[in-house]
UniProtKB/TrEMBL annotation, chains A, B:
This is Phenol 2-monooxygenase. Residues 10-186 form the FAD-binding domain. Pfam families: FAD_binding_3 (PF01494), Phe_hydrox_dim (PF07976). It comes from Rotaria magnacalcarata. Residues 228-413 form the Phenol hydroxylase-like C-terminal dimerisation domain. Belongs to the PheA/TfdB FAD monooxygenase family. InterPro entries: FAD-bd, FAD/NAD-bd_sf, Phe_hydrox_C_dim_dom, PHOX_C_sf, RIFMO-like, Thioredoxin-like_sf. One of its GO terms (molecular function) is oxidoreductase activity, acting on paired donors, with incorporation or reduction of molecular oxygen, NAD(P)H as one donor, and incorporation of one atom of oxygen. Signal peptide: none annotated. CDD domains: PHOX_C (cd02979). Transmembrane segments: none annotated. Keywords: FAD, Flavoprotein, Oxidoreductase.
Length: 415, 415
């Protein structure tokens, strides 16, 4: 960290203490094999069914001495017996019995994030626990940290390989610090919710069952990582009127996978399985209705412009898709057309042409509908190497011009 | 082989010769990435798409010298060039080009099976190529051989472990020789079909496209192994009026898997994944509607009888399901009842209670319908360790009596 830029922690000191026990718990609680949360007058407990007969309990400790000052809590005061006693109160009238304790620990919830995630020259970066700490309840310690380092890694790799300009490194702190801030704000709401007493109606001071449920459901977005939405930057387009071409591909959010059918052999594939994390940007050409001459003309001009784009960023000795991968999805089923009726740029790699249709196993057929793309006119989307939607545009030469402009600020041209 | 019992071959000597080439074939044939069969005036060719860009062609050689005598064909006369020339004629007007030949071979189709698969004392057994040879077209050489040895292995293992009576060994030859005979008879029909010329109408001498297709579809049963149906024996019940309790579980055929939902955690599972090949017989209790008092009474008497059955064959130190595994599937969804409302024998292992309902991912909910089991009255099925349906009966003490009788001839009791 440079002297001129100190990374200091923003946030609160311990207020919430959680105990965790892994065991082959014996109980008559009927939902013990389901992910469930018990919100009681004696505190809150989360049930995480694990492999085999194992169960993890997250138990909120209501009666531990806390300290509003900056002093650390005394962990040595807490014993597994205290965790079990709390859990028994929370589960009552159901019985709990621990034949073993495989592992246990105490989490002291500090909700803090650092001022900076990088020095001003983008030479030193911090990630994970070094720049944010928060509640362990949804396993976001590990998940947020992996996403930090993934976000950083692909940018560093592309810069080091000379494929991208160093300016993309600035987006690391911009994206991940914002996310840490959002996560911690949400975690605070969530932690308070768990600490509040359950009540029967909104007239009382506390949390009703309905309020509790609704916040838990919002929390699923953070748990799954799908709530992340990156703000506009060098690498993420601004949400413009183009977004209406594919409202199901929100700019700044992770692409949701759909099953599409490969033209050459009619086999169904999840789009995510066609998009490995391999440092390549991806251009998804939802070609629309390629049997309509007017649309085919647009597809042809777009393909010509994309071919020029591919050439610009590809080493002369390389393959056309070494830096940017191109995947085409027609709205027509595979039996309606031969691939040769499309511009060869779109099927020179025959594994890259797909169709939005129901496959023999009943999967697929929902891509255009879920992405809210018009089946006649289609749309083109640019996907970042980490799977986030960067841009949405028209199937036309003008549409590809916008993609040209996007890459001009990011990728180093060869020609 | 004992002197008194010679195993001799039944069948024909070479009449059909097939060539096989694996390569990165280049072609403008549009269906090259699909499993397809080309039946032409120049012969027949099968296309097997393989991993990556590889393609396997099975090419029928029309012009090879054949010999109706018992003499072997001269393989040295055949070259890859001959295979390629034949394939080019068959594919015309599409073009074929071989940039490489990864592997090639010639198959001479001998359709033969042995008189005996075992000596008269059941001490020596033969399996696989030792007792049947036939066309390689559907890969049944390997598949039939694996099924031979699997059929033999579980019987041998149960006898050697002292779990089953040696008399079950007689069913090996009975079951697998019949199958080999059926397969070879079908293969003969199939081989002739391939050799016959394509014609436009049934008035001409030859095979129409429709006839060709329909036999190909029948052949899928042999390819997938699902056409196997074992005749009644010590280990496979006779088809009686009980079959009407579950027409979708044909006695003598392999159980088709359905997705069912586990009661304890509402997760969907394929039944096959709950039935590993682990030397255990399985009793599937399709309990019917367990919310109806009259049906629940039948479930209770059946469970009591099954518990006695389990005890009879289980070592005193063992688990109740060491020799026979019990899996229960209610027609009621999991949310409609607590497992404690059923006899504890059916849920003492909580992972073994399932429900016929649609799971959160949309799978499941078809088990009773596909097995054609009444949702009120249910049915009990006995499944052999190799997954074949052995018996179907009523949910009642009398029904379980039939299961008792079945096992009395097979399993060695402990008590």
């Amino acid at each position: 960290m440079s002297d001129s830029k100190q990374s200091v922690a923003h946030g609160t000191f311990p207020h919430y203490v959680w105990g965790v026990i892994d065991s082959h718990l014996q109980t008559d609680f009927p939902d013990i094999r389901n992910r469930s949360t018990i919100h009681s007058h004696y505190g809150t407990c989360m049930v995480i069914p694990r492999e085999g007969d194992r169960v993890r309990l997250y138990i909120q400790l209501a009666n531990v001495e806390k300290d509003d000052s900056n002093e650390r809590m005394d962990r040595s005061k807490i014993t597994p017996k205290m965790l079990m006693d709390s859990a028994r109160q929370i589960f009552s009238p159901y019985k709990l019995n621990w034949p073993d304790v495989e592992w246990w620990t105490i989490y002291i919830v500090s909700q803090r994030y650092a001022s900076y995630f990088a020095d001003e020259n983008e030479r030193i970066f911090i990630a994970g626990d070094a720049c944010h700490t928060h509640s362990p309840k949804a396993g976001q310690g590990m998940n947020a940290s992996m996403n930090d380092t993934h976000n950083l890694a692909w940018k560093l790799a592309m810069v080091i390989k000379g494929l991208a300009y160093p300016s993309i490194l600035k987006t690391y702190e911009f994206e991940r610090r914002n996310y840490a801030k959002q996560l911690i704000e949400f975690d605070r709401t969530f932690a308070k919710l768990f600490a509040d007493k359950p009540v029967q109606s909104t007239d009382e001071v506390g949390v009703t069952h309905e309020e509790f449920r609704s916040v838990l459901q919002m929390f699923n977005g953070f748990t799954s990582g799908l709530a992340v939405m990156y703000e506009p930057s060098l690498i993420t387009g601004r949400v413009s009127e183009n977004q209406s071409l594919a409202e199901g591909l929100p700019i700044g959010k992770s692409l949701m996978s759909q099953v599409v059918v490969r033209h050459v052999d009619a086999r169904p594939f999840h789009m995510h399985d066609q998009m490995p994390t391999d440092l390549r940007f991806r251009v998804l050409i939802f070609a629309g209705d390629c049997l309509l001459p007017a649309q085919l003309a647009k597809i042809e001009e777009a393909a010509k412009a994309l071919q020029a784009l591919a050439k610009r960023y590809t080493p002369p000795s390389g393959n056309y898709d070494d830096v940017i991968d191109f995947i085409t999805v027609s709205s027509n089923p595979h039996a309606e057309y031969e691939k040769e009726s499309l511009p060869s740029f779109l099927w020179q790699n025959k594994w890259k042409l797909f169709c939005d249709e129901v496959a023999i196993d009943g999967s697929g057929g929902n891509a255009y509908r879920r992405y809210k793309i018009d089946k006649t006119n289609g749309a083109i989307a640019v996907i970042r190497p980490d799977g986030y939607v960067a841009q949405v545009t028209h199937v036309s030469a003008l549409g590809v011009k916008e993609i040209d402009d996007y890459f001009a600020n990011i990728l180093v041209p060869y020609t």
